[in-house]
Every structure is written in structure tokens, then in C-alpha cells.
Automatic annotation (TrEMBL):
Protein name per the record: arginine deiminase
InterPro entries linked: Arg_deiminase (IPR003876)
Catalyzed reactions: L-arginine + H2O = L-citrulline + NH4(+)
Keyword set includes DNA-binding: no
Organism: Algoriphagus zhangzhouensis
Active site: 405
Keywords from the UniProt entry: Hydrolase
Length: 415
């Protein structure tokens, strides 16, 4: 009976104490119109890597979400459904539309949009964007100034199906991301709006980051946050996450008391090491999957611990460790086993890491979902006793993110 009570408490408390506990609930976003907005000429402006075929992308994503439900029994929340629910608050809707129009300088049209579009249409606009000529269908006499008809009044968010980036759950609560690239900040704003206002989540939000009062917080992204153990979290100092953000997140986590150690992992500022979860993922209490070249490129790790809390002020200490990342992992994970992508074969490892071979999604201890194209990594995982469930990946992989990148676990069984 005690165990059942504990399970009920942990089901939706929006805290995670592992990367591999049996999955109970996860947030995903089914790709939509925002993908069809991509062209070879605007994809870089929209911070995307390629121009996927939407119908095939949706089929692959559906296969992924259905596999999660069938294999784990977890509840899969879809971003669009949650977003529509919170947008029934017209004040909230108006604020999000107005903020989304700032980049085009058309904020004066926010009220017209909210008045003429349904709530569901507005949800689609916030994710899939809105062009001036589309707006003119609703407002025939629209004066858009010098902005051309085919320009975006609101830009789309094609990276939104990578739900790992806009936030992160830790043992102490939620890190709401401050995205490095301005064009992606709206993704983080949408998720924060949902979780702080949706009736199913709002009472369980314990915000770790950003710090109250910080209007322009340093950047941090969810893919850089990995739970190592019951007592430790690692955060990547990467091209997308700043040292100052790690300091503030570490301070809040240590003060909250759920962890005793926060590691800052210094990654090379290179595209292939964009986030810490491209370097390694934790698959069980004693097993990690790594990309060897990236692991060997980590030469500095720092450790944050709590010094004291005095007069309501939190003081932490930072120690630079002269240890490799593997040594840090061995310290936190007893009897650690390290498996390299493609079992260490340099050619296959490099090829499969291009499609995020190390970025698998754990749905339970030694149970992972992986791209079917990463055949050598999947074979090596199976030889280690890992159950590997494969998903089609011809289109999903074009965004250069793996199964972990596409999922935001909201609840796992405690380990």
C-alpha cells in the first residue's frame, strides 16, 4: 500500500530521478505545417538542416509514438492538444500572439488575429507560422506596410518536434530553457506557458530555472541536462548552453536539496557536439552509450557542490576536476559499462553518429528506441543485453536529432 501511494505521488510530480526508469508519460509534438514551410532557401533562417517530406515524416513520427504506447504503456501527450487547452484563456492567447509578431513588427495585428481565428487555428499559427498573404484572407484591407505578401508575419517552428530542447526535468524540478537561438525561444515560451497554466500540470511545477527576476537569462537547453544518479546531474557547457546558466541552475538544484552534485561538462563548440546528449546517454544503472570521438574531446569537467545556506542566501563551491568524463561517470555510476556507437568501429561510428547513434530513448532499464538506420550500434546494444526497438528514420533523421531529442519524459518509475 505504501508503494502504491508513492507511485501515485511520483506519477505526475514533474521530477525525474533517472534517465531510464520505466516510462509512464512523455510529451511529443507531431510535425505539422511548420515542416512544409521549409524550402532550400529559408531552412537556414529557420534553423533547420534539411527539407523533409512532411507526409513521410508524420508516418515515421506516428510509428514512434505508437511504439512508445505499445511497448511501455506510457501516456503520450501531444503538444498541440495541451496548447489548445491553455489558449482558451484569451489573455494568454493574446500575449503569445503579440510576442510572436514582434519579429515582423506587426504586433498591432494581435487583437485582429485573435478575433478572427479560432483557438485551434491560433495554436496552428503559433507552431506553423503565418504569412502576410494568408492573413489578408481574413483581413482583406490589411495594411502590412512594406512587408511582402509571402513574408512571415509569424515564423514557423520546424524544430518543435525536438521536444527535448525547450525544457528539462530534474530530480529537483523543471529547467525551462532559455534558447541560444532567438528563432527557437518561442518553443520554450510555449512549453513554459503550457506547464505553468495547464490544470493537469500547473500545481506540480517547481521551477529551477530561470531565476526569478532574470529578464534575459543566460542560455541553457534541455539536451544538455542529464540525470546521472540519485545524487547527481550533468549539464553540458556547449555551443547552446552558457556557463552562467549552469551556475544558476546548479545553485537552485543544490539549494532545493534533491541532488548533492552538479557537473559542468565542457564540450567543444562544434555542431556534432551540440548538446551533451549527443555525447552519451544513460541506459541502465550501470550502462551508458557514448560517441567515442566526442567523449575523447572532453578535457574539462567542473563540480558544483553546496557550501552553505546562510541568512536565506545560497553559497556554492566550484571545483575544476582534472578527470576525463569517463572518470566522472565511473564515480557516479558504480560498475560502469561503456558501449561505443557501432561498437567502436571508427567508420561506422562516425556515420551513425551523424544520425545520432548515441541519442537513443530509454523507455525502461536496458530497453531503448533507436533509429533503424543505425544498424551497427543497434547490434552492439543487443549484444550487451539491451532490448532495441527500432523506428523508421529516413525523414525523422533529417533534422539531425535522435529519439531522445524528440521526447520529453514527464514521468518515470522511481529507481
Amino acid at each position: 500500500m505504501v508503494k502504491l501511494d508513492e507511485e501515485a505521488y511520483t506519477y505526475m510530480n514533474l521530477r525525474l530521478n533517472s534517465e531510464f526508469g520505466t516510462l509512464r508519460a512523455v510529451l511529443m509534438h507531431r510535425p505539422g505545417k511548420e515542416i512544409d514551410r521549409l524550402t532550400p532557401y529559408n531552412k537556414e533562417f529557420l534553423l533547420f538542416e534539411d527539407v523533409p517530406y512532411l507526409d513521410a515524416l508524420q508516418r515515421e513520427h506516428d510509428a514512434f509514438s505508437n511504439l512508445i504506447k505499445d511497448a511501455s504503456g506510457a501516456k503520450v501527450y501531444q503538444l498541440r492538444e495541451l496548447l489548445i487547452r491553455v489558449l482558451y484563456d484569451e489573455k494568454m492567447l493574446l500575449g503569445l500572439i503579440r510576442d510572436s509578431l514582434k519579429r515582423s513588427g506587426l504586433t498591432h495585428l494581435a487583437e485582429d488575429i485573435v478575433e478572427r481565428y479560432s483557438t485551434a487555428e491560433c495554436a496552428g499559427i503559433l507552431t506553423g507560422g503565418l504569412k502576410v498573404h494568408e492573413l489578408k484572407r481574413k483581413i482583406p484591407n490589411l495594411d502590412a506596410g512594406e512587408i511582402m505578401d509571402f513574408a512571415f508575419a509569424i515564423a514557423p517552428c520546424p524544430n518543435l518536434y525536438f521536444q527535448r530542447d525547450p525544457m528539462a526535468l530534474t530530480p529537483g524540478g523543471i529547467v525551462f530553457s532559455s534558447m541560444k537561438m532567438e528563432g527557437r525561444q518561442r518553443e520554450a515560451d510555449l512549453l513554459r506557458t503550457i506547464f505553468e497554466n495547464h490544470p493537469e500540470f500547473k500545481d506540480n511545477v517547481n521551477k529551477i530555472y530561470p531565476v526569478n527576476g532574470h529578464d534575459n537569462p543566460p542560455s541553457i537547453e534541455g539536451g544538455d541536462v542529464i540525470v546521472l544518479s540519485h545524487e547527481a546531474v550533468a549539464i553540458g557547457n556547449s555551443e547552446r548552453t552558457d556557463e552562467k546558466a549552469i551556475y544558476h541552475a546548479a545553485k537552485a538544484l543544490l539549494a532545493e536539496g534533491s541532488v548533492q552534485r552538479v557537473y559542468e561538462v565542457h564540450l567543444p563548440k562544434k555542431r556534432q557536439y551540440m548538446h551533451l546528449d549527443t555525447v552519451f546517454t544513460v541506459l541502465d544503472e550501470n550502462l551508458v552509450l557514448t560517441y567515442p570521438d566526442a567523449m575523447n574531446s572532453v578535457f574539462q569537467t567542473s563540480l558544483y557542490t553546496l557550501k552553505e545556506i546562510k541568512d536565506d542566501k545560497v553559497h556554492i563551491r566550484r571545483e575544476v576536476l582534472n578527470e576525463s568524463l569517463v572518470k566522472v561517470l565511473e564515480r557516479e555510476i558504480p560498475h560502469l559499462e561503456v558501449l561505443a556507437t557501432a561498437d567502436g568501429n571508427p567508420d561506422y561510428s562516425m556515420r551513425e553518429q551523424w544520425f545520432d547513434g548515441a541519442n537513443v530513448f530509454a523507455i525502461g532499464p536496458r530497453r531503448v528506441i533507436s533509429y533503424n538506420r543505425n544498424v551497427h550500434t543497434n547490434r552492439a546494444l543487443r549484444e550487451m543485453g539491451v532490448e532495441v526497438l527500432e523506428i523508421p528514420s529516413s525523414e525523422l533523421s533529417r533534422g539531425l536529432g535522435g529519439p531522445r531529442c524528440m521526447t520529453m519524459p514527464l514521468s518515470r518509475a522511481r529507481v
